[in-house]
Amino acid sequence: MTPGALIALSIPSPSVSGFHIGPVTIHFYALCILAGIVVAYLIGGRRYRARGGRQEDFETVTIWAVVGGIIGARIYHVITDHELYFGPGRTWYHMFFIWQGGLGIWGSIAGGALAVWLVCRSKDLRFCDLADSLAPGILLAQGIGRLGNWFNQELFGRPTTLPWGLEIAPQHRPLGYLQYATFHPTFLYELIWNVAGACFLLWADRHWRLGRGKLFALYVVTYTFGRFWVERLRIDPANHVGGWRINSYTSLLVFAAGLVLLIWMLRNKPGQTPPGTPEKVPAAEEQDSDADEDRDDDPKDAGDAGTEG
């Protein structure tokens, strides 16, 4: 098939990656991330309220989850691509210039989860309730965020002649691939996988009635399974160990950890805790409850209640 025919059948890439409002540049990548956060917030908030949680608690957790996710994403990027900031000719403090790009999804997940856990500890909330509530929305948000890679013409896969190949402009092609015009649209593969995975999580939560924590573990297994084979397709510059990208190892390790956790929970924590069940009943409430029961059992109280009718 001729190059012209391939282009005719391929997926075009956007010619622009943002727009200007006065002196301010708005990047479509940032808008995709913001849209994903909004979707995760709306879905997660509705699910958390259905579990008996309070909206104000969820809002507090969401704010800190976003902050922790951004910080974690940047830290992971700096660690795995340290040569961009340290060494001859590099400026180390550019690692703080987050607006120049460079975020790692694995750091985002870890940082966000840590922030949620810390808030839950400080506010005496169930971490697993929040994690299960957020899981489907997070996966959907990750899919929406991948659209940003499409606008930026980045993080695509190997060259392909398939009819859904992605057109990449010459200036965005890595060295060694300048002669190719169409590549695997890994952003689309991950988008489809994440949307399907989010639907699966919602279905599983409704039909299997998974207990607290199991749905989040299932989210980890679902996401990492898809992310592993997507990573195997990508050709963008990355650090390799033994011929594999570092993110491939990360995907495999997190998948294994999530699977072990899910199996352990299914075996050792069967069933489902009713939504809204508190961690423990405060002593004062237990005393009030006992006092109420004593009054109900008092014959005098029962007689008085009968005369009121």
UniProtKB/TrEMBL annotation:
Protein name: Phosphatidylglycerol--prolipoprotein diacylglyceryl transferase
Pathway membership: Protein modification; lipoprotein biosynthesis (diacylglyceryl transfer)
Binding-site residues, a 1,2-diacyl-sn-glycero-3-phospho-(1'-sn-glycerol): 146
Residues annotated as transmembrane: 28-45, 57-76, 96-120, 187-204, 216-234, 246-266
EC number: 2.5.1.145
Gene, per the UniProt record: lgt
Top-rank EC class of the record's enzyme: transferase
Entry's family note: Belongs to the Lgt family.
Its biological purpose: Catalyzes the transfer of the diacylglyceryl group from phosphatidylglycerol to the sulfhydryl group of the N-terminal cysteine of a prolipoprotein, the first step in the formation of mature lipoproteins.
InterPro entries, alphabetized: Lgt
Keywords: Cell membrane, Membrane, Transferase, Transmembrane, Transmembrane helix
Statement: the UniProt record of this protein carries the keyword RNA-binding: no
One Gene Ontology CC term in the entry: plasma membrane
GO annotation (BP), single: lipoprotein biosynthetic process
Lineage: superkingdom: Bacteria
Main location class: membrane
Source species: Acidipropionibacterium acidipropionici
Ranges of biased composition (kind: Acidic residues): 285-296
Pfam families from the UniProt entry: LGT
